[in-house]
Amino acid sequence: MTDDINEGQILMGPSDVCALLGIKESTLRKYALILQDAGYKFHVNDKGQRGYFQNDVIVLKRFMEIKQSSDMTLEQAAEAVMAWVQQSNVAVRVMDKKQESERYNDDIQALKEMVAKQNELLKELMMRLDQQQKYIEESLKKRDELLMQSLKESMETRKMIAAAKEEDEKKKKGFWSRLFGK
Asked: Is domain 3-95 in CATH 1.10.1660.10, yes or no?
């Protein structure tokens, strides 16, 4: 459908439509997205904001009636509304498949870019972890070497002290032995 079908009609904002239908804005957004996924096209300005014409309000009201009166999912209710729209010749705009696939292609491309960035970040983090592990291992090795060196020096010092004590005792013993003749 072209926009000239809606010429002369008033474009309403979400708050006006919510007041007419007695629902919250979050509920309106949810319903509009479900209907869009089913193929219904709402007026969207250049900032990506939805506007609603009288026909849109009729479709939303019918959607709410169908979803309340039967045991069907919201998606099934949207499909039923789309069938009703086509049968009753209500002037609506239906999103062509090309626009829908372009929307999904953009989403898929954005997801691919995000995954690529995350993969790069993961590679960088892995490199940092490897560097950190290498640093830790080198630090432990140096610490162990210094500890062993300190132990060896300590042992050598103790041996030297023990040897010096032993020599002193020999000298002392020798003096007393000489003094008392033993």
From this structure: yes
- How far is 77 from 69, CA to CA, in rounded Å? 10
From first to last of its 182 residues, the chain has per-residue pLDDT tens of: 334 445 557 888 888 889 988 999 999 999 899 888 888 888 888 888 888 888 888 899 988 888 887 778 888 888 888 888 888 765 444 444 455 566 677 778 888 999 999 999 999 999 999 999 999 999 999 999 999 999 999 999 999 999 988 887 777 766 666 677 65
Indicate the SS3 state at residue 43: strand
How is the chain split into domains, by residue range?
3-95, 96-182
Residue linked to tokens 């490897």: 130
Q: Using CA of residue 70, residue 72, residue 78, residue 84, what is the dihedral sign?
A: negative
Q: Which two tokens stand for residue 97?
A: 């498949």
Q: How many CB atoms lie within 10 A of CB 19?
A: 11
Judge whether 43 and 56 are in contact, CB under 8 Å: yes
